[in-house]
Design a protein that fits this description.
Helices cover 60% and strands 0% of the residues. The chain contains 4 helices and no strands. 0% of the residues are buried.
């Protein structure tokens, strides 16, 4: 049996990190003035719900490229 070697906690292999990055960028740009936790939760939920199907599809479709990039980087950082 062959054991597959891979980085155990590679953020490059977790597309959800791209979604959080997207949301973080919008919050920093448009909502940095918010100080209420309740309001910020509403903003985050709203941005999450606005994430459309083709954006999810693009993240899923990028998985092969992500895997190849992690392998090429020998577990190091990639552009993802």
């Amino acid at each position: 049996m062959t054991c597959l070697q891979h980085p155990p906690n590679s953020l490059d292999m977790n597309p959800i990190e791209n979604i959080w990055g997207y949301i973080k960028d919008i919050i920093a740009r448009d909502y940095a003035h918010i100080t209420s936790v309740k309001t910020m939760k509403q903003v985050v939920i709203g941005l999450w719900n606005e994430f459309v199907d083709n954006q999810w599809d693009n993240l899923i479709d990028s998985m092969l490229d992500r895997m190849q990039a992690v392998i090429a980087a020998r577990g190091g950082s990639t552009r993802y």
